[in-house]
Amino acid sequence: MLEKKKALKYLTIFIAIQMLALILIVYLFDPFYQYHEPYFGLKTVLFDRETQVAGSIRTLPYDSVLLGTSMMENCDSSYLDAQFNCQTLKVIKGSGSNTDLLYYLEQAHTQQDLQYVFWGLDWHALTSSTEVTVVSEYSPAYLFTANPLDDFTYHFNKDVLFKKIPLFLAYSFADINTDGHGYDWSDGKEFGAAKAMQDYNKPTEVLPAQDYTADIPLIQENISLIVEEIKSHPDTEYYILFPPYSLMMWDNVYTSGNGDKYFYMLDEIMDALLPLENAKVYYFQADRDIVCNLDNYMDKMHYTPAINQLMLESIASDNLTGYSPYRVTTDNVDEIKQNMLETYEYIITEGIYEYYEK
Q: I need a labelling partner for 44 at 20 to 30 A (CA). Which of 127, 200, 248, 317 fits?
């Protein structure tokens, strides 16, 4: 009996040591940035937005934020750092709703006094649910708290130990997803008309204009949340960018009967944003050289990193010289809206048929 007790004691000690060793390994390497910046001279690697964004907001150094969905993910944030003399953290939510992005942004405000917010504002965000949904099967609840007592699944997770930590180390040494290229997914992706057109089977039927009256309260609520965010932080400068979707997306809007709704949203969001003193607005959707050339795309919406860079260079040029052809102001907003309407009409009557048969 004594020998059994001694054996059980040793087994308990051994298990405790093993558990402490696992906790220590996860704590020291901390691939989800729950506790600290990288140790041992390792680089900051951002390769998994679902698990790293929440922790990085709490523990990494920054004074500005690049906010958005996958449409902004391939932006080189180090370019912004150099042009605006800031330190930018990428805060990305795949297919993120307006409310989820605002949740992340408010967390960033509680951690840092933000100089700039570079915000890629997707149209779908204006019709998204206003319920916060950041916690999911891919983003467990423990990621969103600073309480180490709920990190059990982080410390004893085989994917963290055998996949995430090795990947974190490999990417750090190979300089992948580091510096301004955090979360960049473009490597190895195919862009071009042939690839992009696989994402869109052009409808043969055009539906009548849809009644969007029921969507108006939700659109207005999302716009109000955006305005409230900007007004609540008058010392932060906001650069609002509307990314360019391809002509396929706009043809899809037309054939589904939703054109009127999109132009209603364009009117409403511009009327709301332009009076704000600490916000600058940039609209890239009406540039036919971009949206009507499917070689720039891999599907209806996602474009090459060169387009990401063009957007950043545009706002940097405006910051330096006071001019960008994409800048929207109260003086030119009517012209830009007209340009968008003409671009839309060109797409649905001519541009789409450069790629699809009538």
A: 317
Q: Which residues contact 106 (CB under 8 A, 6 or more apart)?
A: 229
The whole domain housing 49 covers: 2-187
The one-letter amino acid at 249: M
pLDDT surpasses 70 at 8: no
Average pLDDT of the chain is 96
CA distances from residue 4 to 9, 10, 17, 117 in whole angstroms, order as listed: 8, 10, 20, 63
Tokens of 224: 């109000």
| 233 part of a folded domain | no
Residue type, 45: V
Half-sphere exposure (Cβ direction) of 34: Cα atoms closer than 13 Å = 27
Q: Return the structure tokens found at 13.
A: 């000690």
Structure token pair of residue 244? 């360019």
- Domain assignment present for residue 264? The answer is no
Query: Distance from first CA to last CA of the chain, Å, rounded?
Result: 88
User: Would you say residue 100 lies in a domain?
Assistant: yes
Choice among 134-148, 170-184, 282-296, 328-342 with the minimum mean pLDDT = 134-148
**In one letter, which amino acid is 71?**
M
The confidence band for 2, taking pLDDT boundaries of 50, 70 and 90, is low
Q: What does the block give as tokens for 140?
A: 């467990």
Within-domain flag for 104 = yes
- pLDDT tens across 264-298, in order? 999 999 999 999 999 999 999 999 999 999 999 99
Domain count, the chain: 1
The CA-CA-CA angle for residues 282, 286, 287, to 5°, reads 95
Alpha-carbon separation of residue 15 from 28, 30, 41, 270, 342 (angstroms)? 20, 22, 31, 61, 70
- Whether 116 and 86 have beta carbons less than 8 Å apart is answered as yes
The type of residue at 163 is K
Can you tell me whether residue 144 is helix, strand or coil?
Answer: helix
Q: How many CB atoms lie within 10 A of CB 201?
A: 10
Q: Which tokens belong to 300?
A: 């209806």
| Greatest C-alpha distance within the chain | 90
